[in-house]
Design a protein that fits this description.
Length: about 210
């Protein structure tokens, strides 16, 4: 298994740490086998907590793991997850979790855990800076900023709203995004940047 290389690489420094790491590995393996057939998010959170615990052990902040909460978010269709050190929270994408591999899931959890470890251990948030990269290295991972999960099957096509009022001859403004459309419904005025005319929503939504 991937985690077994921690001992070979000398990342773990003493026997007690090795035992803690091996316990986390075994707990992750057993839980993963239980939920392999169907996506059980409670089990996935349990696995993620074990992986956070592992990251905290390897970064010498063992007691931090119990303070970190993990939850799934169904609105994440491009990001695999995010972390907030103020709320001590990691959020993971439930749509992308279904198409991600086991390795990609593990790397995502540890990636986000390292953000919180970075903030709490060093006192400042450096995003993907030197301290975060050091934490990732201590966990035996490459400090990659972006994930490589295929999002094409879960990305939502953004709706657009038809508008009228633009008198531009070339490239007229015929539609706007759903956010602008929502603001227009609430009474906010928008004008075409080229002709200067105010635009209005059509009844038809495209």
């Amino acid at each position: 298994m991937f985690y077994n290389c921690y001992v070979c690489l000398g990342i773990v420094e003493h026997v007690g740490q090795i035992q803690s790491v091996l316990m986390c590995i075994e707990a992750c393996r057993k839980t993963r086998e239980k939920c392999r057939k169907d996506m059980d998010y409670k089990k996935e959170i349990e696995i993620a907590k074990r992986q956070v615990e592992l990251a905290c052990i390897l970064c010498d902040v063992d007691k931090l793991a119990v303070k970190i909460n993990i939850e799934f978010n169904s609105r994440f269709t491009s990001r695999m997850g995010d972390a907030n050190a103020n709320y001590m929270r990691i959020r993971l994408s439930s749509p992308l979790w279904k198409v991600a591999t086991e390795v990609q899931r593990r790397e995502t959890v540890i990636h986000e855990a390292c953000h919180i470890i970075d903030s709490r251990k060093y006192g400042v948030t450096t995003s993907h800076g030197r301290n975060w990269q050091h934490c990732m290295t201590m966990c035996g991972l490459e400090p990659n900023r972006l994930h490589c999960v295929d999002t094409s099957s879960v990305r939502q096509v953004r709706r657009r709203c038809a508008v009228k009022g633009c008198t531009c001859v070339t490239d007229p403004l015929n539609d706007v995004g759903s956010t602008v459309g929502g603001r227009m419904r609430k009474g906010r005025e928008y004008h075409c940047r080229k002709c200067g005319n105010q635009i209005f929503l059509e009844n038809v939504r495209i």
